[in-house]
Amino acid sequence: MNRCPILGVRGSPLAMAMAAKVASALEVANRWPAGDVKIVPITTSGDKIQDRPLADIGGKALWTKELDRALLDGATDFSVHSLKDVESERPKAIQLAAVRPRADVRDRIIGAESIIALKQGARVGTSSPRRRAQLLSLRPDLEIVPLRGNVDTRLAKLEAGEMDAMVLAAAGLDRLGKRRVGTAIPIEQMLPAPAQAVIAMECRTDDTVTMQALKAIDDAGTHAAILAERAFTAALGATCHSPVAALAVLERGKLRLKAQLFAEDGSDSIADEARFDCGDLKAAAALAKAMLDKAPPAIRSLFS
Fold it and tell me: In terms of pTM, does the model score above 0.85?
C-alpha cells in the first residue's frame, strides 16, 4: 500500500485493544513501520444505547452499521470486529478477509465459583439469549438480570450489588488484562456462541490490495471453523433472539461441529454434532436443518 491503511473500530476499550493487536500484527507481517496503521474509533448505535438488550432494538447490526458505512464510503480501509457480534448475512460489497487465531472460547462466571455454587434464586447478569437459556437450563431458579455496558461498567454493577454474579466472555476479559477475573465455565456446561473469541477483519470486496495485506495475518484453522459456525447459524435463520450455541474444532484434518438450540427459558434444548471436511459449508447447513426438523415447537419457533 502506498499510504497508511485506516482501521475502523468501535471506540470501546475492548474493541480498541483488539484493534491495537491487529494493527501490530499487520505491521509485522507486511513489514510496515510501527504505527503505520491508523486506528479510527467509531461510535456505534450499540455503544450509544445502553439501557435495553440489543435483541430488542435491532440486534447485531447496531454494532456494525456505522463501521460498514465508513468502510463503504472510503473513510476507512478495513474494520475490526468481535466476530460473534457480526451478522451471519453481510453486504456483498464487504468481505470477511481474515481472522486472528481463536482465543479462549469459554465463558466465565464472576461472583461465584461455579453455576452450581450460586445461591438459590441468585440474580445473574447477562443480556445474551444464549447464556440466559443455558443458565436457566442448568438452574431454573435463577433470576436473569439484563446487563449492558463495557466490561468495567458491568463489573462496577456487580461490585455495587446490583446482581449476585454475571457471565462474560473469557476472551474479552483476557484481552483487557483481566485474566484472573472470574472462573471459567466448562464448554460441556456452556457451549459458546458461534464465532466467539474470534477477532475478524473486513474490507471492501473490490479492494484487493487491502485484502491481500489482511490475508498475511489470517489463521486458516480458525477461519475454516468460523465459516462452518456461521453457515450453521445462517441456515437456522437465527436472530438475536435465538438461543444458539456452536463450536467447530479441527480434529485430524476434519471439522467437528457441536451445536445446541434452546427454548428461550431454557426449559427445552436439543444438541447434535457432525464431522465434515473443511470448507464443506453445506454439511454445516445440513446439521442446522436436521436439528430444526427434530426440535420441539418451543425451539423451532425461534428460528425462521
Answer: yes
